[in-house]
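Two proteins were folded this term; both appear here.
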Amino acid sequence: MLKSPIPIGETVRLCSLQNLKVLDTLPEERFDRITRLVARVFDVPIALVSLVDVDRQWFKSRHGLDAEETPREISFCGHAILEESTFVVHDAAEDGRFADNPLVTGEPKIRFYAGHPVHSPQGTRIGTLCLIDRKARAFSSEDAANLKAFAEMVDHELSLLAQTTSDELTRIANRRGFAQIANHMLALCHRHAKPATVIGIDLDKFKVINDTHGHEAGDKVLERFAALLVKTFRDSDVVARFGGDEFCVLSSYAIASEIRARLDQLAEAFSASALKGEFPMLSWSAGVAEYDPSKPPDLEALLSMADAHMYAVKQALAADRASGVRSVI
């Protein structure tokens, strides 16, 4: 078996995929509609929107398949993202690259595969729209052109998804995108009895910067602070801008001591940053709400708790702004 190879520019590709904040989100009719239509048009039992992550392929939409993901090294889609053209395997059982692949010898017993790349809004190949059949079959150039047209529909939906769930200025999640991912992650924490923490963060004296230096300077502050948050917290954490100078982070499967360590790192990085040097009056405040996995998820309640904690911190430390940082758990 030929394992799925790593393409050139893999780090950039994975960053584009992660920035979409679409992995492990719930099914959506906009994508399911396409896989249903593709399965009918091409008369195949299985059609997938597959996104190729670090070590897995995860299915944003799946028609005719129960599995939510499979290992990347045995994936056909891992091969399909190497080129811009449609990748076709007419008979996997007779193809030396795939004949002993577990997806061929076992379920779903792939014999035929055709996949066309789908792209991030930046044009990076992040996965495929693919067709699977349990019998060998031909696939014409006209078929390939039609599959490409359907893949472009997926590209369009991914672009719309990025627009509706991302903050235009900072390019991190917006409130809607945060809620979409956070509700799913909290459900997982509840199911597996794992902790989670919501951290609300406000920039203090941000209005002074806008009033003194103008909104262009204020926008740069927001962009740079968002980048600092993304760099400080884990790749698996959800970092979002709710609007204005309000940010939020969901850290799942993390205990309180880990959260304290992250906030300490943020404090150090912020104090040493050019951002703090350029705008010494700028500071930030944080409020924390810990999720009890024994109780049903309630994101809005957690956000309210984090917000209340943050404002309690602001009031308690209002007289001590010299350090420029307030982060209390």
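Next, the second protein.
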Amino acid sequence: MFNIAIISSSVRIGRQSHKVALYFHNYISENKLANAEILDLKEFNFPVMEERLSLTPNPTDAQKLFSEKIMKADAVIVVSPEYNSGYPASLKNAIDLLYNEWYHKPIGLVSVSSGAFGGVNALALLQNIFLKVRAVPIAVPFPVPLVQNNFDDAGNAVNKEATDKRAATFLKELLWYTEAFNKMK
């Protein structure tokens, strides 16, 4: 069974995107698709990156743990809100902290917004950034519009049937990439 890390990238008070990270964790676990673990950037509480982890003289335990978790993951789901047509600084900080850990890592991108467009601007930016660090963002993203109306605090989808159908398509694609890249190792 594959290991999927789910990065919950917002560190803001009242964050909504974490609900979607919880949803994916629950969906993957309940359907026994993979071993899933949430890597909550709010809990990691990284300092602003001064240098890539591999060049940091005294990395924190949290930085080393994050690196290990990404290395061990067969794939990563990144759940990002869109703030002012971009993604949160906490996510950019975490991406830039690593480099080799992202190499050929399948990445499923989930964008979240309180508006009607589901964070598609952040989604496009993240696709480019992950390509630059040699990761592989999958072709099927998962934008979530009006997140505050569509998920409860425990990560339950208000329209479970429709959300599960979209999630199944998204995860099928992610697992296909994961299996293909795992064979190439």
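Residues 87 and 122 are 5 Å apart (CA to CA). Helices lie at 17-30, 41-44, 61-72, 89-97, 120-132, 147-150, 160-183. These notes refer to the second protein only.
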